[in-house]
């Protein structure tokens, strides 16, 4: 069996731990330099994944924006853009979303029921791959490994990040802390309730701290115990 990809979770949070506010417009937490840092991490990834709810709500294009980075990828024999992935159990995805109409290859992981629901809607826009009756992230990573994906970047949202962390499948975590307070319990948080491996007794290894303008970027290794 092929090795599973290295899984990097990336998120921007407010100082009080929110990843958005409760309004319909997306709250921009990062600054320009930090968005550029994220662009670099995308460019270093073979695939970038977001949950179906982020796709439906934020309608992102999920691209490498820098022409230089795309040229460097092409010069290294890679596609200009990483593979774009979304995950849906229900299969309720609109073909008009921007995600399908920018970048290179797109892949949808779903269930048998989700594939039936999607029908022909994404024909010509994305490959639709059912993982069976259930959507297990281990099976998803096995499938990506078999496709030669070495580095996977997961960009949210809450349920997607929670699922990877709860399953013990995240190798690296980048948390960009923006200097603002959302202060609304109705707003989404970085992760939801879950039984995380080791619970609060498990201290993740801190791998780096960097100031990117007014944003603090923290790098953790969730599967490695802290050295104390
Ligand atoms: N600040 C940031 O860095 C950042 C980044 C990304 C997103 N966000 C925010 O996050 C919010 C959306 O988060 P969310 O939790 O509602 O949605 P999400 O994590 O983006 O997507 C959840 C959806 O993923 C699908 N799914 C399938 N299998 C799953 C599994 N095993 N585990 C988890 N999800 C699975 C389901 O889709 P179906 O319903 O189709 O079955 C589920 O509804 C938005 O407000 C967005 O702006 C913030």
Features:
NADP, Riboflavin_Biosynth_HTPR, alpha/beta, binds NADP nicotinamide-adenine-dinucleotide phosphate, DHFR-like_dom_sf, 228 residues
Bin the helical content: 10-25%
Question: What's the average pLDDT?
Answer: 96
| Class from helix and strand fractions | alpha/beta
- Rg from Cα: 17 Å
Give start-end ranges of low-pLDDT stretches. Answer: none
Shape estimate: globular
The side-by-side strand order for the widest beta sheet comes to: 5-4-3-2-6-1-7-9-8
Write the H/E string, N to C.
Answer: EHEHHEEHEHEHEEE
Largest sheet at a glance?
A: 9 strands, mixed
> Number of domains in the coordinates?
1
Stated plainly, the CATH topology is called: Dihydrofolate Reductase, subunit A
- CATH homologous superfamily grouping: Dihydrofolate Reductase, subunit A
Number of strands: 9
Instruction: Please report which band the strand proportion falls in: under 5%, 5-15%, 15-25%, 25-35%, 35-45% or over 45%.
Output: 25-35%
CATH class: Alpha Beta
Architecture per CATH nomenclature, i.e. the level-2 architecture? 3-Layer(aba) Sandwich
End-to-end Cα distance, whole Å, is 36 Å
What ligands can be seen in this structure?
A: NADP nicotinamide-adenine-dinucleotide phosphate
Pfam families: RibD_C
Protein name: RibD family protein
InterPro entries: DHFR-like_dom_sf, RibDG_C, Riboflavin_Biosynth_HTPR
Keywords: NADP, Oxidoreductase
What does this structure look like?
This protein is of the alpha/beta class. The chain has one domain: 3-Layer(aba) Sandwich (Dihydrofolate Reductase, subunit A), CATH 3.40.430.10. It contains six helices and nine strands, in the order βαβααββαβαβαβββ. It has a nine-stranded mixed β-sheet, with helices on both faces. α4 links the parallel β4 and β5. The longest helix has 12 residues. The chain is globular, with a radius of gyration of 17 Å. The model has no long low-confidence stretch (mean pLDDT 96). The protein binds NADP nicotinamide-adenine-dinucleotide phosphate (NAP). NADP nicotinamide-adenine-dinucleotide phosphate binds next to β1, β2, α2 and α6. This is RibD family protein. Pfam families: RibD_C. Pathway: Cofactor biosynthesis; riboflavin biosynthesis.
């Amino acid at each position: 069996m092929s090795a599973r990809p290295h899984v990097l979770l990336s998120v921007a949070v407010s100082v009080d731990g929110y990843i958005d506010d409760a309004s319909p417009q997306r709250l921009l937490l990062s600054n320009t330099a930090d968005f550029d840092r994220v662009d670099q991490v995308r460019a270093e990834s073979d695939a970038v994944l977001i949950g179906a709810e982020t796709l439906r709500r934020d309608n992102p294009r999920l691209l490498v924006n820098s022409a230089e980075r795309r040229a460097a990828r092409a010069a290294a024999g890679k596609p200009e853009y990483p593979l774009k992935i979304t995950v849906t159990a229900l299969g309720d995805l609109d073909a008009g979303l921007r995600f399908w109409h920018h970048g290179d290859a797109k892949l949808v992981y779903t269930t048998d029921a989700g594939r039936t629901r999607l029908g022909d809607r994404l024909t010509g826009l994305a490959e639709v791959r059912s993982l069976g009756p259930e959507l297990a992230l281990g099976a998803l990573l096995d499938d990506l490994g078999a496709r030669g994906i070495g580095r996977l970047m997961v960009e949210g949202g809450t349920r997607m990040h929670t699922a990877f962390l709860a399953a013990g499948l995240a190798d690296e975590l980048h948390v960009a802390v923006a200097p603002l307070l959302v202060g609304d319990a109705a707003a989404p948080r970085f992760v939801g309730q879950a039984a995380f491996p080791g619970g609060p007794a498990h201290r993740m290894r801190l791998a780096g701290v960097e100031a990117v303008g007014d944003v603090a970027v923290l790098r953790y290794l969730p599967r490695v115990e802290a050295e104390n």
